[in-house]
Amino acid sequence: MDLGLKGKNAIVTGGGSNIGRAITLTLAEEGANVVIAEMDEAQGKKVAQQAGGKSICVKTDVTNFSSVEALVATATKELGQVHILVNNVGWDIMKYFLDYSLEEIDRIMKINYLGMVYCCRAVLPHMIENKHGRVVSLSSDAGRVGEFREPIYSGMKAGVIALTKSLAREAGRFGITFNALCPGVTRPEKPEEAGELSMWGKDGAAAAMFTEEVAEAARKMYALRRLGTAQDMANGVVFLCSEKAAYITGQTLSVSGGYSMM
Ligand SMILES: NC(=O)c1ccc[n+]([C@@H]2O[C@H](COP(=O)([O-])OP(=O)(O)OC[C@H]3O[C@@H](n4cnc5c(N)ncnc54)[C@H](O)[C@@H]3O)[C@@H](O)[C@H]2O)c1
Predict the structure, then answer these.
(1) Which residue, 15, 70, 205, 260, is most buried by CB atoms nearer than 10 A?
(2) Is 1 contained in some domain?
(3) Residues 106, 89: Cα–Cα separation, whole Å
(4) Whose CA is nearest to atom 25 of ligand 1?
């Protein structure tokens, strides 16, 4: 199936690591050019080079609106029309609600929700002007079921789903679709697939939490009895970015081996 992505231009936030990296490389395989919006410029540049074509990395902090505006200005200057936005940046540290510091609460809220708000706010006028857009945002099954020891993250990921639906209703008349994808647990297959700021990097919160024992317990909860790969997630995201998904909007797709079914 030709996904109709040849020559399309995409912004992928956090496109240097794990799931974002696989999204970038899969979009590139389908013929799209990708602007990787990354805090970790070195990792983003490495992946942009692997992606080839006109793909570039732009150092960006999605929690800073001026930085996001500069990203969109660079993307349109370098590539012209932006057809696709993937809001992929996310971060978590797993604790009981009362154990979070106020700084940790603030950080989780900003990275997982405010970053998406800012990126949509900056890109939407451009997509409305062009009467075309595909926006796919990474939520989580935590945002659908409310996960144990991920209370702030679960709330923000539920926010990603609700914002997706609201914007799908507001922007549908301009030919713009908004969808959310909920991964299950997705570990990088090789250390070099995770950047230094990744949750799965050597100092990352998820890497420390997700021992082999925890992974085995998770596998048992999944109908397909295996954890997903970054490529499994990218396949779903890239389909939703494609012209074949032009009539799908406001939807939430769990790609989690049957962990949550709704
Ligand atoms: N991996 C999982 O198990 C899992 C499960 C459910 C949902 N998700 C969601 O999927 C998405 C991707 O997860 P992942 O595991 O690939 O993440 P990751 O931690 O491996 O990568 C995140 C990337 O975002 C970049 N980044 C962090 N803060 C940034 C900022 N303020 N501005 C720009 N870039 C920034 C980091 O440098 C890193 O490259 C996230 O939204 C996450 O919440 C992941």
Answers:
(1) 15
(2) no
(3) 15
(4) 14
Positions marked active-site:
153
Q: Name the token pair of 259.
A: 């962990």
Place of tokens 């939703």: 240
Residues in contact with ligand 1 (CB, 6 Å cut-off): 13-14, 16-20, 37-40, 43, 60-63, 88-91, 111, 115, 138, 140, 183, 185-186, 194-195, 197-200
Domain count, the chain: 1
| 127 within a domain of the structure (yes/no) | yes
How many other C-beta atoms are found inside a 10 Å radius of the C-beta of residue 183?
26
234 in Cβ contact with 22 (< 8 Å): yes
Report the atom number in ligand 1 closest to the C-alpha of 142. Answer: 6
With both helix axes pointing from N to C terminus, report the angle between 151-171 and 115-130 in degrees, rounded to the nearest 10.
Answer: 10
**Distance from the alpha carbon of residue 136 to the mean position of ligand 1, in angstroms:** 14
Residue whose Cα lies nearest atom 10 of ligand 1: it is 138
Cα of 15 to ligand 1 centre, how many Å? 8
Residue nearest to atom 23 of ligand 1 (CA): 14
Is 35 domain-assigned?
yes
Q: How many CB atoms lie within 10 A of CB 222?
A: 17
Read off the CATH number of the domain in which 149 is found: 3.40.50.720
Q: Give this prediction's pTM.
A: 0.98
Each of the 262 residues of the chain gets a pLDDT tens digit; together they read: 999 999 999 999 999 999 999 999 999 999 999 999 999 999 999 999 999 999 999 999 999 999 999 999 999 999 999 999 999 999 999 999 999 999 999 999 999 999 999 999 999 999 999 999 999 999 999 999 999 999 999 999 999 999 999 999 999 999 999 999 999 999 999 989 999 999 998 777 787 778 889 899 999 999 999 999 999 999 999 999 999 999 999 999 999 999 999 8
